[in-house]
Amino acid sequence: MPTKTQLTVRFAEREDVPFILQLIRELAAYERSLESVRATPENLEHWMFDEPVAECLIGSIDGAPRGHRAFL
Question: What sign results for the dihedral spanned by CA atoms 61, 67, 68, 70?
Answer without folding.
Answer: negative
